């Protein structure tokens, strides 16, 4: 079923174009060095957009990935600067989601965009992982609360 969803995402809705342009923008931001935290997040988002029904975006803190203190601090400053752009991208994506919900075939794609909305708004410190990894993270969090 995930494969069928990925095919529907690519063929009529041109999901590969979204992935390609997100990758290009992320690469340009990485080359600027100042925008590297955002660029790396957008590159991870482009990986997600290639197979959105098989992948998910999670925070690096959920995976217990340790980061350099200076990189993390720099990422906080970049998030503040990126906020207006992220807000615009989130609003554009929300308009796409509303438009896709008008067609039956577009509903799964709208759900994919809704899953990626948080990453468009704040791509810093996000990583693309398999859906199974996200499910395991959820199980471990639920087990630790019990």
Helix count equals 6
Strand order of the largest sheet: 1-2
Total beta-strand segments: 2
Q: Domains counted in the coordinates: how many?
A: 1
Instruction: Return the structural class.
Output: mainly alpha
Radius of gyration: 16 Å
Q: Bin the strand percentage.
A: 5-15%
Broad shape? globular
| N-C termini distance | 32 Å
Helix content range of the residues, please?
A: over 70%
Characterization of the model:
The chain is mainly α. Helices cover 71% and strands 7% of the residues. The protein is built from six helices and two strands; from the N terminus they run αααβααβα. The chain has helices at residues 2-10, 15-31, 36-50, 69-100, 106-121, 131-145, and strands at residues 55-59, 126-130. A two-stranded antiparallel ribbon has the order 1-2. The radius of gyration is 16 Å and the shape is globular. The mean pLDDT is 88.
Per-chain topology:
Blueprint: H1 2-10, H2 15-31, H3 36-50, E1 55-59, H4 69-100, H5 106-121, E2 126-130, H6 131-145
Antiparallel strand pairs: 1-2
A few lines on this structure:
The protein is mainly alpha-helical and 146 residues long. The chain has helices spanning 2-10, 15-31, 36-50, 69-100, 106-121, 131-145; strands at 55-59, 126-130.
Descriptive key words:
about 150 residues; two-stranded antiparallel ribbon; 2 strands; mainly alpha
């Amino acid at each position: 079923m995930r494969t069928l969803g990925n095919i529907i995402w690519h063929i009529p809705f041109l999901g590969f174009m979204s992935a390609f342009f997100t990758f290009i923008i992320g690469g340009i931001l990485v080359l600027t060095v100042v925008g590297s935290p955002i660029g790396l997040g957008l590159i991870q988002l482009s990986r997600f957009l290639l197979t959105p029904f098989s992948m998910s975006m999670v925070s690096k803190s959920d995976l217990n990935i340790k980061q350099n203190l200076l990189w993390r601090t720099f990422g906080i400053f970049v998030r503040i600067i990126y906020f207006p752009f992220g807000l615009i991208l989130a609003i554009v994506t929300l308009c796409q989601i509303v438009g896709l919900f008008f067609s039956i075939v577009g509903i799964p794609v709208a759900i994919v965009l809704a899953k990626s909305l948080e990453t468009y708004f704040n791509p810093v410190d996000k990583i693309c992982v398999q859906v199974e990894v996200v499910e395991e993270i959820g199980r471990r969090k639920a087990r630790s609360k019990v």
